[in-house]
Amino acid sequence: MAKKPNFFNRTTKIKIKLLKTISTTFPAWSILLLLSTSVSAESPSFQEELSQTQPQVADMGEVTPVHQLLDVPPSDWKSQAFQALSDRTLCLGENYQPDERLLTRYEFAAGLQVCLDQINQKYLSDDTSLSEANQALVARFRQEFAQELATLRDRTDNLETRTAQLEDQRFSTTTKLNGEVLFQLGDSFSGDDQSQLFTGYRARLNFDTSFFGEDRLRIRLGARNTGELEEVEDTFMVRLGVDGESDNEIETELSYDFAVGERIQVVTGISSVGADDVAEVLNPLSSSGQGAVSRFARRNPSTLRGPGGSGAGIQYEFSDSVQVAVGYFVDSDDAAAASGERGLFGGSYSAVAQLLIEPIDDLEFAFTYTRTYYREDDVRLMGATGSENANEPFGEDATSANGFGFQANWELSDRFGVGGWFGYTDANQETGNQSATILNGAVIFNFPDLGAEGNEGGIIIGVPPIVTQNDDSEREDERTSLHIEAIYRIQLNDQTIITPGVFVITQPDHSDRDPIWVGTIRTQFRF
């Protein structure tokens, strides 16, 4: 008769081997497996296997009690007791509503910790004593959730330590860093096309510091390199809103603005401020990074362009609808020079005054007067816009001028606005008796949220600065050119804006020349 196989010993061996495998991961399971193995302690094979397994079980350390692995349902005595404690002590506020879902022990312990902290603060800070029943309940909770509360305290302490470290290592409590990078791709086209497709960039880093909350100290570091089309097309009229180069050097600007009371704002600077920083520009397309792509279409050159860099200005609000602004600005290089012919009062300067009126919501208009002076060999009367005659009506001779400007902007709806400006300039030769009259103007149509929220379209039609009368008749402009421009700003997100634009100069430099077309795509990254 064949001997029956020993199923008892085989099963035992399998379970003990399984115990070896899982004991290091699930200690409690190994004990249950041992208990479920119905074998005789006298079995030689069992004793041998058990003797090999016992040292492994002994090394497992303390086994977590099973009750600490359980969740806390709303029906559990802990949830009900905690609700009662909260109602009696108001440790979680009067409007606390118990969570009706199944909570893990750590979720339950987190709410318990908040409650216990409030109880400690409340009953240690006044003479009210905690009832014996509540004291007993608090003690039981502390004992029941000692492990979870200790873990939460450790995590909180660690978080506070890391937060303190971040505060110690942060850049500044009062300074914010922001920046901008512009990339441009463009070209110009005319009957005698001499230009090529070009690229360019401008980069800026702003360090904005506030000492009192109502002030701002700005230190700006910048660099740029974009082709100057006027050197190719021989007219200022094709200048872009952003052009020129910094010769591989960092350009530094410094300004400080602050409020005096609720109605006065002061603007100061030593290398970056001008008339347009104190006098309002009402053109919604005036931004060099997001608005018009040409230089002329940004603002009125009769009154809002001129010598500047160093100086100060004040804005005063008489009411919510009336504001007055005045300022005095000097060319930065002249302001830094100690020469008697330069300095703060001997160099090229601009003095501006403006009255701004907002009679109704969404309608604004402003009257601006600017007195400018350009020293010899430094004359750019119209801020390098318009014709050559308009910028140098008397050649390189020192020139002064009185500029008068009117500008308006009316937002007729959320999707359409119209505005524009007119400028009149009376120029005078400082070394002689000649005078000249220079005019310019523009009409602006803007279309906010065109196509999508944040986008904007714009059309600018104007006449760049033109000399209509000059005692030196050879420096009067012969023709009248139009500036026609269209842009479409596409806001991809809060940090990225792409603006394609095109403009045409119908009679460059107000002379008998073929039209010049300029097209560009500008991309702005902000951070």
TrEMBL record:
- Where is coiled-coil annotated? 142-169
Keyword flag Cell wall biogenesis/degradation = no
Tell me the leader sequence span.
Answer: 1-41
The family database entries (InterPro entries) matched by this protein are listed as:
Carb-sel_porin_OprB, Cell_Envelope_Struct_Comp, OprB_sf, Por_som-like
Listed GO CC annotations: membrane
Claim: Signal is one of the keywords in the record: yes
The protein in question is named Carbohydrate-selective porin, OprB family
